[in-house]
Amino acid sequence: MSAGLTDDQIFIRDSARNFLRDQADFDRLRKAVDGAGWDRELWASFAGELGFAGIGISEANGGAGLGPVELSLIAQELGSTLAPIPWFETAVLAATAIAEAGTEAQQATLLAPIARGEAIATLAMRDAAGQPLPDGIGPVLTKDGAGWRLTGRAHFVPFGEAADLLVVAARTAGSTGWDGISLIALPAANLKREGLTSLDLTRPLAHVDLDLAVDDDAILGEAGQAGPALRRTLAIASAILASEQVGGMARTLDETVEYSKQRVQFGRLIGSFQAMKHRMADMKLWLEAARSAAAMAADAVERNGDDMETLASSARAYCSDAYLRITADGIQLHGGIGFTWEHHAHLFFKRARGTASLLDSPAHQRELVARAIIDTE
């Protein structure tokens, strides 16, 4: 959709779309999935040569200085191709956390290599049980003489094995809620990382073991004061992730409709059957509602509105549910071929399942929306 977009935004979207449609085809995706789980060459071109890693980073730190709306447009295109690159983790999760919590000096040091496409970064924070945030923050930061000690394990870290830089969310011992949370920037090379085989093979996960001394320079801002920054980071990331989900939904529906115009059964195109038409009409309704929710969330975080967290949570909850429904129906409406490993329908379904739990569960997102509604009455 181009309605409401500026010429510059259309150019950014089309540049990402054209590159990904040419370079990130499903044959290349399969090779990445069968190998390291991501495509280093594709990342170098997309992040460095085209500059998409620095879209949301300020100009002072080497980026383009654009906002969540532009990020959401790129995310949709990445979602439509399932491009196996750490753009969301680097350009959205980690870069936003650094920009929100870090001092000017820390931002200058950490964001410049990200903007140039020279560093892969990600956010590490989850506990083993996957509890709702902020209770689900696993690593612990304790005072240790003149410095600090970071211990524990960060679970299910997206692109955790590939990252050059980890932004670790840790809780000060004894703190609760959003209080006492710190964000620590760590070089990943010397950390013990365990790659995981997860359902979504296009977004590799890892566990990261932490037991190391940390000095004040590694802590973004002040120790124990990063709760508000992390909340805003997660709101922005939720809005952008919802847009990624929209891209996957749109691609699934487009390919399902196209298949229905080609496959013949009982002497007729399957798209002519009423049951097929009704299912695809429902898919279109879910898609357009999700598109609107994601656009509203991106606008809310762009303007830093009071409803930012609520709209981001609403979009993530709805888009997660819609993505699963659309991809499940996409498999069903493709018939027998849709259930095969060779067809890519299952990759979109697995991405739908993976994104639903990447930041927080849809159930918890709905709970946050319900609390916001109750609190305003």
UniProtKB/TrEMBL annotation:
Q: Which family, according to UniProt?
A: Belongs to the acyl-CoA dehydrogenase family.
Pfam families, A to Z: Acyl-CoA_dh_1 (PF00441), Acyl-CoA_dh_N (PF02771)
Organism of origin: Edaphosphingomonas laterariae
Gene Ontology molecular function: acyl-CoA dehydrogenase activity; flavin adenine dinucleotide binding
Instruction: Give all residue intervals belonging to the Acyl-CoA dehydrogenase/oxidase C-terminal domain.
Output: 233-373
Q: Does the keyword field hold Cytoplasm?
A: no
User: What keywords appear on the UniProt entry?
Assistant: FAD, Flavoprotein, Oxidoreductase
Name its co-factor(s): FAD
Q: Where is the Acyl-CoA dehydrogenase/oxidase N-terminal domain?
A: 6-118
Protein name per its UniProtKB record: Acyl-CoA dehydrogenase
